[in-house]
Amino acid sequence: MDENKFNERIQDLVEEAEDKPVRREKKEKPQLKESIYSLRLDELKDWLEANGEKAFRATQIYEWLYEKRVKSFEEMSNLSKSLRDKLTASFAVTTLSTIISQESKDGTIKFLFQLQDGYSIETVLMRHEYGNSICVTTQVGCRIGCTFCASTLGGLKRHLLAGEIVEQVVKVQQKLDEVGERVSHIVIMGIGEPFDNYDAMMNFLKVINHDKGLNIGARHITVSTSGIIPKIYQFADEQLQINFALSLHAPNQELRQKLMPIARAYKLDKLIEAIKYYTEKTGRRVSFEYGLFGGENDSVEHAEELSKLIKGIKCHVNLIPVNYVPERNYVRTPREKIFAFEKTLKKNGINVTIRREQGSDIDAACGQLRAKERAQETR
Ligand code: SF4
């Protein structure tokens, strides 16, 4: 893709996100290039053939990007100079630059990356006994408006391109290369609603899952949605082996729409129908993410109501004791109430775990680092 086309595409994404025209003044546009990581292997082959090159070069380029993890086309020494020049003219290997990385005492590292057009996004590396997991961001900001989330405070600025999502993983992998470790798991639970940027998310999945790409197994990837019902049906029909999570957070319609305004558009009863369709179509279980907000949704009665709502669904409930978010008034649920909630679900035969808190000393809650950076920018 040439530079002008790519700049226009970025503008289109901004316009779509803001739902209004954006002035197209050439002098104000930064010079942007498409990330090479946006291209699936088949797309790269097509691009090569369209540019007078052999399709098999795509595999070589993938090896340089995803196995050797080079940072420039110049390093791709088995490609001709003319091909390297063509690639350089059309694509960038690096479109993210690291603004800050904060490391927690438990090994969690939170990265704040800057995009080519100046926006910043967050990515988190978490260390588990079973491996290294990355939480990626899919949008700059978010328009879903969950009342407990700092990421939505500034609204949606734009969708990320597939390559900008892939590059978050590559950047973190390059960091892990320094200590001989590998990214083993991906969770698409960072800033943004992945199903609101569906096509880019699907391309991202194809690149990281491909054996010539980052080769991360489907069962090691989890995608989470706030509940965009039509996309749940679409995703079910893809029949992937990818883990699927729904941010549920409430056992009834009234409470859910208080916590998550999206529930006004997508009602809880219809959402549960869509989830049942997903589990039946794929044969896979769903994870219900349930944030515990002190005094809001964390009583034993709520746990009983939740048990009834999801009874019979092949599922697992992940309880998330939510950190205090400075911009909102929710407080943390006390320990004994967390355990009482868990015990009630277990008594009702529901699989349940309590999420271990990671990186609490480094603003690891969704959106906090970016919000802090934005506050500093506006001072
Ligand atoms: S929790 Fe996720 S979907 Fe909800 S506003 Fe925040 S980023 Fe968006």
From TrEMBL:
<keyword id="KW-0411">Iron-sulfur</keyword>
<dbReference type="GO" id="GO:0002935">
    <property type="term" value="F:tRNA (adenine(37)-C2)-methyltransferase activity"/>
</dbReference>
<keyword id="KW-0489">Methyltransferase</keyword>
<dbReference type="GO" id="GO:0030488">
    <property type="term" value="P:tRNA methylation"/>
</dbReference>
<dbReference type="InterPro" id="IPR040072">
    <property type="entry name" value="Methyltransferase_A"/>
</dbReference>
<dbReference type="Pfam" id="PF04055">
    <property type="entry name" value="Radical_SAM"/>
</dbReference>
<keyword id="KW-0004">4Fe-4S</keyword>
<keyword id="KW-0819">tRNA processing</keyword>
<dbReference type="GO" id="GO:0005737">
    <property type="term" value="C:cytoplasm"/>
</dbReference>
<feature type="binding site">
    <location>
        <position position="146"/>
    </location>
    <ligand>
        <name>[4Fe-4S] cluster</name>
    </ligand>
</feature>
<keyword id="KW-0408">Iron</keyword>
<keyword id="KW-0479">Metal-binding</keyword>
<feature type="active site" description="S-methylcysteine intermediate">
    <location>
        <position position="366"/>
    </location>
</feature>
<dbReference type="InterPro" id="IPR013785">
    <property type="entry name" value="Aldolase_TIM"/>
</dbReference>
<dbReference type="InterPro" id="IPR058240">
    <property type="entry name" value="rSAM_sf"/>
</dbReference>
<dbReference type="GO" id="GO:0000049">
    <property type="term" value="F:tRNA binding"/>
</dbReference>
<feature type="binding site">
    <location>
        <begin position="192"/>
        <end position="193"/>
    </location>
    <ligand>
        <name>S-adenosyl-L-methionine</name>
    </ligand>
</feature>
<dbReference type="Pfam" id="PF21016">
    <property type="entry name" value="RlmN_N"/>
</dbReference>
<feature type="binding site">
    <location>
        <position position="224"/>
    </location>
    <ligand>
        <name>S-adenosyl-L-methionine</name>
    </ligand>
</feature>
<keyword id="KW-0949">S-adenosyl-L-methionine</keyword>
<keyword id="KW-0698">rRNA processing</keyword>
<dbReference type="InterPro" id="IPR004383">
    <property type="entry name" value="rRNA_lsu_MTrfase_RlmN/Cfr"/>
</dbReference>
<feature type="active site" description="Proton acceptor">
    <location>
        <position position="122"/>
    </location>
</feature>
<comment type="similarity">
    <text>Belongs to the radical SAM superfamily. RlmN family.</text>
</comment>
<dbReference type="GO" id="GO:0019843">
    <property type="term" value="F:rRNA binding"/>
</dbReference>
<keyword id="KW-1015">Disulfide bond</keyword>
<dbReference type="GO" id="GO:0051539">
    <property type="term" value="F:4 iron, 4 sulfur cluster binding"/>
</dbReference>
<dbReference type="InterPro" id="IPR027492">
    <property type="entry name" value="RNA_MTrfase_RlmN"/>
</dbReference>
<comment type="function">
    <text>Specifically methylates position 2 of adenine 2503 in 23S rRNA and position 2 of adenine 37 in tRNAs.</text>
</comment>
<dbReference type="InterPro" id="IPR048641">
    <property type="entry name" value="RlmN_N"/>
</dbReference>
<protein>
    <recommendedName>
        <fullName>Probable dual-specificity RNA methyltransferase RlmN</fullName>
        <ecNumber>2.1.1.192</ecNumber>
    </recommendedName>
</protein>
<feature type="domain" description="Radical SAM core">
    <location>
        <begin position="128"/>
        <end position="361"/>
    </location>
</feature>
<feature type="binding site">
    <location>
        <position position="142"/>
    </location>
    <ligand>
        <name>[4Fe-4S] cluster</name>
    </ligand>
</feature>
<dbReference type="GO" id="GO:0070040">
    <property type="term" value="F:rRNA (adenine(2503)-C2-)-methyltransferase activity"/>
</dbReference>
<feature type="binding site">
    <location>
        <begin position="247"/>
        <end position="249"/>
    </location>
    <ligand>
        <name>S-adenosyl-L-methionine</name>
    </ligand>
</feature>
<dbReference type="GO" id="GO:0070475">
    <property type="term" value="P:rRNA base methylation"/>
</dbReference>
<feature type="binding site">
    <location>
        <position position="323"/>
    </location>
    <ligand>
        <name>S-adenosyl-L-methionine</name>
    </ligand>
</feature>
<dbReference type="GO" id="GO:0046872">
    <property type="term" value="F:metal ion binding"/>
</dbReference>
<dbReference type="InterPro" id="IPR007197">
    <property type="entry name" value="rSAM"/>
</dbReference>
<keyword id="KW-0808">Transferase</keyword>
<feature type="binding site">
    <location>
        <position position="149"/>
    </location>
    <ligand>
        <name>[4Fe-4S] cluster</name>
    </ligand>
</feature>
<keyword id="KW-0963">Cytoplasm</keyword>
